[in-house]
TrEMBL record:
The organism of origin for this protein: Qipengyuania flava
Keyword Coiled coil: no
Biological processes annotated in GO: cell wall organization
GO cellular component, one term: plasma membrane
SUPFAM superfamilies: beta-lactamase/transpeptidase-like, Penicillin binding protein dimerisation domain
Protein name per Swiss-Prot or TrEMBL: Peptidoglycan glycosyltransferase
Domain Penicillin-binding protein dimerisation: 86-203
C-alpha cells in the first residue's frame, strides 16, 4: 500500500469543502448585484415621478397663463408701495395726533344659508341666540336681532367686533354667525371733533364732515398714503368740548356750540357742537345729533352785534367823540318801540352803552349810520352768505334783503332781524380785532405765508379802538365773568330770545352767547361760546343771560388753552384803556 494512500480521502474531502465555499461566495455576489439593480431601478422611477411632477406643475402654469391671456381679466400688477398703503388715508390734527385711521377688524354677519338653503338658519332658537349675543354686546338691540334671526334676513349684526368678543361669539356655536375680516374706520379720540370729522358709511364713502370733503384724497392710491393735517388742535378741542359740556350741565341747556379761531389766518383750532355723536358707532341717535350748530344753524345772536355796529359807526365817522351823550330812552319807530332790559339812565356814552349793553343807544348809533352803510358792513363781514369753511353743512343766513328800512337797520345794529351761524360771528370778530381784515375760516392747516390776504372791512385805527372797548367790557361790564387773570380777555355778551312766540319771540327761550378775543394787547384768538335755551339755576344765580352762563365758559377755557397755544398769563401787560376810564363811572369808583 502506498504510504500516501491514506491521505486521499482527506484531500478529496478538502476539495469538496473548498468548492462549497466558492459556490456560497458566488451566490452572495449575485444577490448584491440584484439589490443594486433594484435600487437603481427604484431611483430611476423616483426621478421619473419627480420629473413628471415638475412637468405637471409647469403644464398647470402654462394653462393658467393661457387662460389669463385669453380672458379679459388680466392680472393687475400691484406695487409694493400700493400693497403697503392704508385702505383709506389718515386724518390728523395740526400736531400729528391721529383723528381718523383705517385698520382691519372683525364684523358680525348673519348668514341664514350657512346650514343649507332649505335648512333652519340657527341650531338654537332665535331668542336664545340673541340673548347670548346681548351678554357679549350689552348695547345690542336684542329684540331687533331676534326678529332678524326669525325672519332669516341676512345682514350685519355689528360692524366692529373686538378679537376677544369674536372668540365669545364662536363659543355660541352657530355657523350662521359669521365674522368676516373687513377694513374699518376708527376714531381714536372717540366722539371728540365728531362734527368736524364726520364718519365713513357702510359703502366706504365719507359722510357729513371732512371725511366727506376729503373722500377722494383719502381713497385715491396716489394720495392716501400721506396723512391730511387739519387745523384742529386736539388739546384745544378737548378743552372746548369739556368746558361747553360742563356749562350746559350747570344751566341745563339743550345744546351748545363753540369755536376757537386764529384771528390772523382764519384757522379753526377747535369747533364743537353739543350734544355730540360717536363716529365709531353710528346709530339712530347718532344720526339725530349730526346737525352742526356752529356752521349749519342760524341764530339771532343779539348784543354780540353791538361792537360790530359801533365799529362801523367809528369807521364811517358817525362816532368821533366817545364822550358824546346819547339818548337812552326807548326808541319809537312807527308802532314799534325799542327798549333796554332795564333802565340805564337818561343818557349814555358809547363806552357805557357797550359795557351795559344798551339796545336804545346802539339803535340810535345804527340809525345815524344809516341802512345802506350798515348793510354794506354786514356784507363785507360775509353775513349775507353761507359761512366760509370746508364742511359740507353750512346754513344760509336769514338776510333782510336788498332794501333795508330804518327800523331794520336799527334792529340789526343790536343783533335782531338777522340770523347767522356762530362761525359768521367768529370771523367777524376776528376782523374787528386783527387790524380790520376779514378772512375765511378754514379747517386746513396752513403753512407760513399761506394765509389768504382777505379783504379790509375796518380801518386799523378802528380795530385798535375796538380792542380797547372790548377789554373795557370784560373789566367793567357784562363780560366780567370771562376775565381770566393775566390773559387780557375782551368780549361781548349776547342774549337773544328765540323766535316762535305769539309776539314773534319766545321770552322763555334764550340763546346766550359770549364772543371774545385774547390777549387784547395783541389779539391772537377769537373764542365763541353759545348755549341754546339755558335755564336759570343755582350755578348761574338763577339768571339766564350770557353774562352768567356763556361768559364763565370762556373764563374757564382761556386759562386751559392759553399755555397750549403760546399765550402765557402775564399780569404786567394789558391793552391801554387809560383814555377810556374817564368815560366809565365804574373805573373811577
Amino acid at each position: 500500500m502506498n504510504a500516501f494512500s491514506g491521505f486521499a480521502p482527506a484531500i478529496a474531502a478538502g476539495r469538496s469543502g473548498h468548492g462549497a465555499v466558492s459556490m456560497a461566495l458566488a451566490s452572495g455576489r449575485v444577490q448584491l448585484v440584484n439589490i443594486r439593480q433594484e435600487s437603481l431601478t427604484l431611483a430611476r422611477w423616483r426621478v421619473l415621478w419627480i420629473a413628471l411632477g415638475f412637468a405637471f406643475v409647469a403644464l398647470l402654469a402654462l394653462v393658467r397663463i393661457a387662460y389669463l391671456g385669453a380672458s379679459d381679466h388680466g392680472a393687475r400688477g400691484t406695487s409694493l408701495e400700493e400693497a403697503l398703503l392704508p385702505p383709506r388715508g389718515e386724518i390728523a390734527d395740526r400736531n400729528g395726533v391721529p383723528l381718523a385711521r383705517a385698520f382691519p377688524a372683525y364684523a358680525l354677519w348673519f348668514n341664514p344659508t350657512a346650514l343649507g338653503e332649505d335648512g333652519t338658519p340657527l341650531v338654537n332658537e332665535p331668542e336664545e341666540v340673541a340673548a347670548r349675543l346681548k351678554a357679549i354686546f350689552p348695547d345690542l338691540d336684542e329684540s331687533r336681532v331676534a326678529a332678524q334671526f326669525a325672519a332669516g334676513k341676512q345682514g350685519y349684526i355689528r360692524r366692529r367686533v373686538l378679537p376677544e368678543e369674536a372668540n365669545r361669539v364662536q363659543e355660541i356655536g352657530e355657523l350662521a354667525l359669521e365674522m368676516p375680516m373687513e377694513n374699518d374706520r376708527h376714531y381714536p379720540q372717540g366722539s371728540m371733533a365728531a362734527h368736524v370729522l364726520g364718519y365713513v358709511a357702510a359703502d366706504g364713502k365719507g359722510r357729513v364732515g371732512m371725511e366727506q370733503v376729503l373722500d377722494k384724497h383719502l381713497s385715491d392710491p396716489n394720495t392716501r398714503g400721506t396723512p391730511v393735517s387739519l387745523s384742529i388742535d386736539s388739546r384745544v378741542q378737548g378743552a372746548l368740548e369739556d368746558e361747553l359740556r360742563r356749562g350746559m350741565k350747570l344751566v341745563q341747556a339743550q345744546g351748545g356750540a363753540g369755536i376757537v379761531l386764529d384771528v390772523d389766518t382764519g384757522e379753526v383750532l377747535a369747533l364743537a357742537s353739543l350734544p355730540e355723536f360717536d363716529p365709531n358707532k353710528i346709530d339712530a341717535r347718532g344720526q339725530k345729533l349730526m346737525f352742526n350748530r356752529v356752521t349749519n344753524q342760524v341764530y339771532e345772536l343779539g348784543s354780540t352785534f353791538k361792537p360790530l355796529s359801533v365799529a362801523a359807526a367809528i369807521d364811517a365817522g358817525v362816532v368821533r367823540n366817545l364822550g358824546r351823550r346819547w339818548d337812552a330812552s326807548p326808541v319809537k319807530v312807527g308802532r314799534f318801540s325799542i327798549k333796554d332790559s332795564h333802565s340805564m339812565g337818561a343818557d349814555l356814552n358809547v363806552v357805557e352803552a357797550l359795557i351795559h349793553s344798551s339796545n336804545t343807544v346802539t339803535a340810535r348809533v345804527a340809525d345815524e349810520l344809516g341802512p345802506e352803510r350798515m348793510r354794506r358792513t354786514m356784507i363785507d363781514l360775509g353775513m349775507n352768505e353761507r359761512p366760509y369753511i370746508e364742511l359740507p353743512a353750512k346754513g344760509f343766513p336769514i338776510w333782510p334783503g336788498e332794501k333795508w328800512p330804518r327800523l331794520r337797520s336799527m334792529t340789526v345794529g343790536y343783533g335782531h332781524g338777522i340770523a347767522v351761524t356762530p362761525l359768521h360771528l367768529a370771523s367777524a370778530y376776528a376782523a374787528m380785532v386783527n387790524g380790520g381784515i376779514w378772512r375765511p375760516a378754514t379747517l386746513k392747516k396752513l403753512g407760513p405765508g399761506e394765509a389768504p390776504k382777505g379783504r379790509r372791512v375796518f380801518k386799523a385805527s378802528t380795530s385798535s379802538r375796538m380792542r380797547q372797548l372790548l377789554r373795557a367790557i370784560a373789566v367793567y361790564g357784562t363780560g366780567k365773568n370771562a376775565d381770566a387773570p393775566g390773559y387780557r380777555v375782551g368780549g361781548k355778551t349776547g342774549s337773544a330770545e328765540k323766535p316762535g312766540g305769539s309776539a314773534g319771540y319766545r321770552k322763555t327761550a334764550l340763546v346766550s352767547t359770549f364772543a371774545a378775543a385774547f390777549p387784547m394787547d395783541r389779539p391772537r384768538y377769537v373764542v365763541i361760546a353759545m348755549l341754546d335755551e339755558p335755564r336759570g339755576t343755582l350755578a348761574s344765580s338763577y339768571q339766564r343771560t350770557a353774562a352768567w352762563n356763556a361768559a364763565p365758559i370762556v373764563g374757564r377755557l382761556v386759562p386751559r388753552i392759553g399755555p397750549l397755544i403760546g399765550v402765557r398769563p402775564d399780569d404786567t401787560r394789558d391793552v391801554d384803556i387809560t383814555d377810556l376810564k374817564p368815560l366809565i363811572p365804574e373805573a373811577n369808583k
